[in-house]
Amino acid sequence: MKGIFYLFIFTPFMKWRSTRLNSWLRRTTGLKSLLRCMRRLLKFYCRISMNERNTMSNLQLSGFMVKPSNGLSRQQIVVLQTVLLRYREASLQALQETQDHLQAFLEISDSEERSLQREEYRVDLTVQEHEKLQLQRIEQALQRIRNGSYGYCEFSGEPIGMARLMVQPTATLSKDAQETAEES
């Protein structure tokens, strides 16, 4: 029983932690030792750094498998989420300004003035379409953050990378997948 418990519970954790703790766990025997071991692990868990704690929190209860890391820490995801929220605010503001400008154009009664501003109206419509599309991408990225799939390529499933996400936080494809998509 103890051997099975060790294999399915502690083996993934030990791959992640130091060999010193691994050898200590092998020496423990019996239920009391197992409880002591769990208490020590809890104390040990409380002492480890935030980065390691984030990795430990990815242990899944079903099978106790470690979730593959996309290379983004929680702090980086929070930064990217903040950037996305600011982009969303700016996009909503630009969309509102465009709406106001289009509404002002429709209220113009003079036909000469209206004909002069027709080109500006077309530009405003293009800007409005672009802002709506950008807002949709931002909302999708925020949804991916909420469901935990943010930072992974939709095509290959590989991590996208922090550098690419800082430049384009709404990215859904890795650099290689994007190049492949652009070629075809």
UniProtKB/TrEMBL annotation:
PANTHER family: RNA POLYMERASE-BINDING TRANSCRIPTION FACTOR DKSA, RNA POLYMERASE-BINDING TRANSCRIPTION FACTOR DKSA-RELATED
Zinc finger motifs (dksA C4-type), residue ranges: 153-177
InterPro entries assigned: DnaK_N, Znf_DskA_TraR, Znf_DskA_TraR_CS
Matches recorded under Pfam families: zf-dskA_traR (PF01258)
Protein name per the record: Zinc finger DksA/TraR C4-type domain-containing protein
Keywords carried by this UniProt record: Metal-binding, Zinc, Zinc-finger
Cytoplasm is among the record's keywords: no
Top-level lineage group: Bacteria
Domain Zinc finger DksA/TraR C4-type: 148-182
GO molecular function: zinc ion binding
Native organism: Chromobacterium phragmitis
Signal peptide: none
